[in-house]
Amino acid sequence: MQDVRFALRTMRKQPIFSLVAILTLTLGIGANTAIFSLLYQVLLRPLPYPAADRLVFIWNTYPLMNLVQAGVSIPDYIDRKTRAGSLEDAALFTSRRVNLAEEGRPEQLNALAVTPTFFTTLGRWPFIGRPFREEEAKPGADRVAILTYSLWSSRFAADRRAIGRQIRLSGDTYEVVGVLPANFELPTRDVSLLVPFAFTDAQMSDQERGREFSSMIARLKPGASLERLNGEMKTIVAQNLERLPERKPFAQTSGFSGYAVRMRDQLVGDVRAPLYVLQLAVVVVLLIACANVANLLLMRANGRRRELALRAALGAGHGRLARQLLTESLLLSLLGGAGGLAVGLLGLRVLLAVSTRQLSLLADASLHPVVLLWTIGLSLVTGLVFGLAPIWPIVREHAAATLKEDHTRGSAGSATGFTRSTLVVTEMALALVLLATAGLLFKSFVNLQRVTPGFSSENVLTGRIALPASRYADFASRRQFWQRLLDEVRAVPGVRTVGLTSTIPLSGDVNSGSYSILGYTPAPNEAQPHGRQEFVGGDYFGALKIPLLQGRLFDSRDGPDSPTVVVVDEYLVKRYFADRSPLGQQIRRGPNAPPFTIVGVVGTINAVDLSAPVTKERLYYSIAQRPEPAMALLVRTALDPQRLVGPIRATVQSIDPEQPIADVRTMDQWILRSLETRRLPMLLLTLFAAVSVLLAGIGLYGVLAFGVAQRAREFGIRQALGADATSIVSIVLAQGLRTTGIGIALGLGGALMVTRYLSSQLFGVASRDAGVFGTVTVLLFFIAVAACYVPALRATRVSPVDMLKEE
User: Fold this and answer.
1) How confident is the model at residue 673 (pLDDT cuts 50, 70, 90)?
2) Which residues of 293-308 are buried (b: 16+ CB within 10 A; e: fewer)?
3) For position 697, what pLDDT does the model report?
4) Could you tell me which of 28, 703, 692 has the C-alpha nearest to residue 385?
5) Helix/strand/coil for 675
6) Which pLDDT belongs to residue 524?
7) Strand 166-169 to strand 193-196: parallel, antiparallel, or no bridges (unpaired)?
8) Count of CB atoms within 10 A of residue 230's CB?
9) How far apart are CA 289 and CA 339, in angstroms?
């Protein structure tokens, strides 16, 4: 305690030094705390299910059709659940949009239709009420619902009497039978309630194979492996093909099978690599902060040499002095750690708030006890790292020699000077590594934003509408609603063009399917055509400015009683009609389906991933001929799109007071959302790089300023002997730039080694891009020159008269 009290007194005597050191550590530790919180939440935290390591996702796959991961059909699910010996339990679920018509304005919610085995598979249950029963997974008996904790709290005031209450979902009455606990993490995000997944007899038949709109999760038996399960699924496929020989050619040319992936790996997706990059970046920031504080402590320790020497002469041993210095550094680091916790919590909240595409695992990210222990441990290690630096130069000195030395000649010696310079070199090198990494990601993101998706997103507003089957059960009622909606939205002031689509570009919605081209036979071992399938209405192509290249678009000739037609994109034409006109050619979506005649060709759009090339064709069908129950409205406007949100909501309500419109966003917001996993890491790395450069510049400035103070007599004598200001400035600049040059050289070497691991995160830029490396090198050099110039200028202001008087 005596050491702690003395350390506190020392800090009070030097408040500016203490404040700078604590703030520097707060910044470094806070950044580490925030990013480690995300890393722990996504990659390290145990999933909140019993024996979570045995939980897997199961998918269909068609590798020869360039479709690695596809949904699971109901027959495939039944096959695997009942015939795969490695599975202890399994469940099927699919997303649905439902309209909740309670008090106030109707609201569109995301629901999850789940089989009753969903709860036994995950090993979790509602905390009030009950799970679904097997008999409720049948058509007509499935009018029950389980609320998520958030919906129960927000719309039902967390009232336990909600159990047994009747609610209206998409025009039907459902009974609330349960509420999920707050920590029940669903395998998909933004879900408000669960309903039973009821299978019809037709859905369980072989005719349903290929309708893969659902997801499957399963629990492995103890001791079972993914390899064994994957082998069992291949066996099931082979057995089914023997029983259904008509499906054999398609399965062989597409490579159809099933495969399993660990639940955590599926949920993490493509976030793992960016998180590792960010964690490495904040560790670098912390190392630079430590180097800066170590330099501060070295300078302060040099000023206290006589004090420490006097204490040694009075009997304090080297161990006692080292313990005192270490106590002071640990106290600084713990105070910095306390500030880092606050900064980390604030930073975490900001990160989650600015993220437009939250991973389901990130939704509950917070400062867990493990993160608190990490921060405390990090603070202690940090204190040890920078606290050891000033100890050796002090304790190795002889007390008597130090006391006899003229205090005006005080110098820390060559060893201490070398240590300080080494720390600055390290800071410069690490800062350059971060700058290069941030530069590559920034250039990559700029390249992504320059990608032309094939459509125009400017001034386009979108919103989703899901018509309830109870009130819009047939094609005629749906067609009437969509046509009236188009007509009335066109009349809204400021609206230029209105369209409808079943899949908003870059929203994450993907609807794909196989088809055949009449008169075209795939070559042996060639997969059947497979492309993106989309239903559109109104002037969809005009709303997104997708160009018409051949033929015509949908018009009044394509009514419900007219021959079915389709518009295809240029990608399909180049692939299958390179030697002939596609107009008038026909396609079929199934063996017994009616043919669709190609009447137009439009430009190819990239609607899935701007960082990847288009690999599948796109086919457009008219909602006038097949009106879908769920569509998205697209409105091109001459005004700010946000000004139309209210009028469009009012228009929908005027047509159907119980019909909500959801996910109202601009197309620019959808594009930004699709780039979230690249945008956020780029912004954070740029921020960390800027901080690291600032700290490195401060460190260089501090070393040179201290050096100028130590060499004041030398500079005074030089001026007395005739040296001008230019030569004095040159001496100081040479010292600083020599240190900078070594740091830059080492940093370039480190950056070349580190950035080669960034290839998967880059788009349109090489991991060793000369332009980026040259730019960041020049930038760091000029920052270093600025940091050197102020101490150099101060050296010219040393008075030779005053220095000679001291002699």
Assistant:
1) confident
2) bbbbbbbbbbebbeeb
3) 82
4) 28
5) coil
6) 80
7) unpaired
8) 18
9) 14
The alpha carbon of 452 is separated from its chain's Cα centroid by a whole number of angstroms, namely 22
Q: Are 461 and 637 in contact (CB under 8 A)?
A: yes
Q: Helices marked H in 304-412 — which ranges?
A: 305-313, 318-354, 369-388, 391-395, 399-404
What does the pLDDT read at residue 3? 62
Q: pLDDT per residue over 291-346, tens digit each?
A: 877 777 776 666 555 555 555 555 555 566 667 767 777 888 888 888 888 888 88
Q: Please spell the DSSP secondary structure of 741-794, one letter per residue.
A: HHHHHHHHHHHHHHGGGGGGG-SSS-TT-HHHHHHHHHHHHHHHHHHHHHHHHH
Residue appearing with tokens 């695992």? 361
Block residue for tokens 């000023």: 303
Which pLDDT value is given to residue 361? 52
Distance CA(114)–CA(215), nearest Å, equals 10
- Residues 6 or more apart whose Cβ sits within 8 Å of residue 241: 247, 248, 251
- Tokens describing residue 390: 């000033």
Per the CB < 8 A criterion, the answer to whether 535 and 623 are in contact is yes
> DSSP assignment, residue 474?
S
Amino acid at 283: V
CA proximity to 418, closest of 295, 306, 285, 297: 295
Output 719 or 68, whichever has higher pLDDT: 68
DSSP states of 237-264 as a string? HHHHHHH-GGGHHHHHHHT-EEEEEEHH
Among 776, 206, 143, residue whose Cα is nearest residue 441: 776
The bridge status of strand 107-114 relative to strand 193-196 is parallel
Q: 254: closest CA among 79, 519, 66? A: 66
Residues 740, 779: contact at Cβ < 8 Å?
Answer: no
Please, what's the b/e burial string for 342-355 (b: 16 or more CB within 10 A of its CB; e: otherwise)? ebbbebbeebbeeb
Query: How far is residue 145's CA from residue 113's CA, in Å, rounded to a whole number?
Result: 9
Q: CA-CA distance, 296 to 329, in Å (whole number)?
A: 11
3-class DSSP state of 531:
strand
- For the chain, the distance separating the N- and C-terminal CA atoms, rounded to the nearest angstrom, is 43
Which of 107-116, 397-406, 603-612 is the least confident region?
Answer: 397-406
Name the token pair of 691: 């901080």
List, for residues 55-78, the tens digit of each pLDDT value: 999 999 999 888 889 999 999 999
Q: Which of 247-251, 308-312, 588-592, 716-720: highest mean pLDDT? A: 247-251
Q: What are the helix (H) ranges across 559-659? A: 570-576, 645-655
SS3 126: coil
* Distance separating alpha carbons of residues 552 and 550, to the nearest angstrom: 7
- Please, what's the b/e burial string for 243-255 (b: 16 or more CB within 10 A of its CB; e: otherwise)? eeeebeebbebbe
Q: Give the confidence band of 24 by pLDDT, cuts at 50, 70, 90.
A: confident
* Contact call for residues 219 and 51 (beta carbons, < 8 A): yes
Per-domain residue ranges of the chain? 418-451+675-807, 469-657
How are beta strands 565-569 and 512-514 bridged, if at all? unpaired
Which tokens hold the place of 38?
């995300």
Q: How many Å apart are CA 379 and CA 331, to the nearest integer?
A: 9
Give CA–CA dist 373/351, Å, rounded: 21
Residues 6+ apart with CB under 8 A from 567: 551, 553, 554, 598, 599, 600, 601, 602, 619, 620
**What is d(CA 156, CA 167) in angstroms, rounded to the nearest whole number?**
11
